[in-house]
Amino acid sequence: MLDQEWAIILARIQFAFTVSFHFIFPAFSIGLASFLAVLEGLWLKTGEGVYANLYRYWLKIFAVVFAMGVVSGIVMSYQFGTNWSVFSDKAGPVIGPLMAYEVLTAFFLEAGFLGVMLFGINKVGRKLHFVATLAVALGTFVSAFWILSVNSWMQTPVGYEMGANGQFLPGDSWLTIIFNPSFPFRLVHTVLAAYLTTAFAVGAVGAFHLLNDHRNPGARKMFSMAMWMAAIVAPLQVVAGDFHGINTLEHQPAKVMAMEGHYDSHPDGAPLILFGIPNSKEKRVDYAIQIPKASSLILKHDLNEPLAGLDTIPDQDEPPVPIVFWSFRIMVGLGIGMVGIGLWSLIARARKKLYDWPWLHRAALAMGPSGFIAVLAGWVTTEVGRQPFTIYGVLRTSQSASPLDAPAVAVSLLAFVVVYFAVFGMGIWYITRLMKKPPEAHEKPLDDAPIRSSGITPVMAVLEGSSS
Questions:
Q1: Can you list the alpha helix ranges (DSSP code H) found in 351-405?
Q2: Taking the CA atoms of the chain, what radius of gyration do you get in angstroms?
Q3: Residue 300 in contact with residue 242, Cβ under 8 Å?
């Protein structure tokens, strides 16, 4: 019995480890693909070479990020058959087709146009290349659509029927399954998070190069665009997060109770606990710093509205409160910091000091990893808050794992840790190396290479275009 419990714990750690590595790459590539589409569109509209330079600069980074995202995603999916075969058997009739749709639509769209996007800059017409860039950007969004639909259905399962063999079978309408109650909120919240992740990564690179040379036109342009995105999207994310939280309270109240640290019910308005140390053994938050009734105001928009606590949830159905409590605060704290950087940039822009305030640049550089940390913290909040269920309320994690011994899972986990840190560590090192190189300081259009009458691009022109 103890060996089985450890096998489940290790399987959960393994999946958490691999999905964490995987998630940072799509979170970057979704926003970066859209950023590339905007850059190429602006170049086509204005003809300014600075946009072409930035397109080439970020295209190489996008290629590496996209490749690592694909590889890590394929490896992660194998665990459904190894460590979570019971879950795959029971939920396969519902989640299997949705994941197949992701491959048939998003992955084929991305793979079909990625080659043109990466290698066709000087080989196809401007409009066709722009179409390829738009197709890849659309593919990244469609991929997020299907994956988040699957995850949202696991959070708020609807539209299914139980088969005689205990399988979840699709009901009368696939639309009910796809557009389950939490899906629209999770999709908006996650996609905005991806855009913010990209904005702060791009902004950090621009800030780094502005600190070295504040006259570099590429650094100035990328920093300006990133700060516009931060100033606009970060406040929108706060609003989207509020709607998402209210939806979660309706469908997954135990998760919100853990996020808020509400061990006890509050019939006359619940406090907002800013900080504290959750004590699950004593069912309280020690050393709590709180604002009276503020949680009811945020979640119910009424200071005196009652909120139920974990005392209404059976102990065996409670999520791990400390993990959810702190991951939620990390996400929210970083979100507040993003809003602050966006507002700071607006002040600098109004005073015409956007490129001349080193402290703003240092702050933006420090916030560069904030998007990645925030999406991981949000993912932990979502997934750990769903425990002890894989399919919320109907299928427990203990009923979903493969009948494996703990040592077997431990060996595979160790192998994943070693390989992932070696392979993806090198990939991340290469990405940072590309980012340290400043963008071209002179204007250079995308189609600068001459084309021979036979349609063959000179080798030296191709090499020059790919290395710039």
A1: 358-366, 370-384
A2: 24
A3: no
Instruction: Dig out the tokens for 386 from the structure.
Output: 């769903």
Three-class SS of residue 356? coil
End-to-end CA distance of the chain: 60
Query: Which pLDDT score is estimated for 2?
Result: 52
Closest CA to 225 of 206, 197, 208, 209: 206
Digit-coded pLDDT (tens) for 9-46: 888 888 888 888 888 888 898 999 999 999 999 998 88
Nearest to 263 by CA among 316, 294, 307, 323: 307
- Is the separation of the CB atoms in 376 and 197 below 8 Å? no
Any residues with CB less than 8 A from the CB of 280 and at least 6 apart, and which? Answer: 318, 320, 321, 322
Model confidence at 404: pLDDT above 90: no
| CB 417, CB 200: distance < 8 Å | no
Strand partners, 278: 285
pLDDT at position 319 over 70: yes
| Cα–Cα dist 315/313, whole Å | 6
For 377-388, the DSSP string reads HHHHHHHHTTTT
Rounded to an integer, the average pLDDT of 311-317 is: 90
Query: Residue 430: in which H helix or E strand, if any?
Result: helix 406-436
pLDDT at 102 over 80: yes
